[in-house]
Structure formats: structure tokens, C-alpha cells
């Protein structure tokens, strides 16, 4: 047997713990779901899952040993991750509330007829009309590449490959199984965080509440620096 059931169960639990618990990815997905709705957060969700899968494949190919051979490379990655995470925290924390003339994701879901009638008006404001580029959702490639500057993601991938792959001719099959489990377990969990953000967005009824929510999400994102060090 390629991998026994007890090891497969342990892999699924490990994947759930790594992808489903609070961390930079899930905090940013919650903020994106609240601000932009679930549909516009889907590229972010898919980018996270694809990035994790490709990172595990990268480690399985042997590139993970670079950190052991060159410790300074890991330190440099941590510094880069800290800088980028602080930038993302600032971008989330400084995001303005949704444009006043546009419905939020929660309002649009609750009032589909109103959303259509507003969109039909020639002078109606579009959802992002009053929002700067800093307030857009994260794109697929950005979420994917973020995994490569996230030391926690590297540690997760190295642990997964080291613990759940088998040596010999079945190595790549076990690596593929590890990747598949991470995708099958992680994708619903990260999607759940985005959906949770949508629910939070529906509860925010004033611009002041939105500003405080985004600031809190920014602070929580910045606090994830403790996971890096």
C-alpha cells in the first residue's frame, strides 16, 4: 500500500491544522470576503491553494534543502516576508468603506432587484468607483506568489514532504497524494474564511464600522509576524 490509512488520516489532520487555522492567508481572505464579496475573492482563494500545492511540489523536488545548506537564504526570505506582510497589513487597514452609491456584497445579496436597478441607471456608481487600487481584492498570482515568501508555508511544505512521503519508487506518487490532500482539505477551509468575511460584511452598517473593521484586519495581519519569527 502506498500510504496506510492512519498516515493518511494524520496527513488530513495536519493539512486542516495548517490551512484552516488563523494566519496571514485566512485573515486576508476574511477581509477580502467582507469588502468585496465571495465571488471576487475566489481568485484569492484559488491562488492560496495553488500556491501551497506548487510549494509542496517545489520542496518535493528538492529545493527545500537550500534552507539547510544556506541559512542566510532563510533569513532573507523572512525579512522579505515581513516587509510584504506589513505592506499588506497597511493596504487592508487603510482601505476605505465601500462606495456610498454602491451596495456592499451583503446588501446586494439581500436586495438583488435593487442592485440590478442601480446598475441600470446611467449615473449609478460602480462598486469600485470611489475605491483606490489599494482597495482591490488580491489577484490569483499575488496570492500564489505570497506563499513563496511565507516562511510558515515553507515550513509547512517541508514538514509535509518529510513526514508524509515514502522513499523509493513510490516517492512521487506519495508526494502527489500529499498535494491532493492539501488541496481537497484546504480549499473548502480557506473558502469558509472568505464566506465568514461575507457574513461579517453584512453586519457592518456604517462607514465608521467598516473603517474599524478594516483597521482591525490590518492589525491582525501585521500580528502574523510572530508566526514568521
Automatic annotation (TrEMBL):
InterPro entries: LeuE-type. GO terms for biological process: cysteine export across plasma membrane. The keyword rRNA-binding does not apply. Keywords: Cell membrane, Membrane, Signal, Transmembrane, Transmembrane helix. It is found in: Cell membrane. One of its GO terms (cellular component) is plasma membrane. GO terms for molecular function: amino acid transmembrane transporter activity. Residues 1-15 form the signal peptide. The keyword Transmembrane helix applies. The chain crosses the membrane at residues 43-67, 171-200. It is a multi-pass membrane protein. This is LysE family translocator.
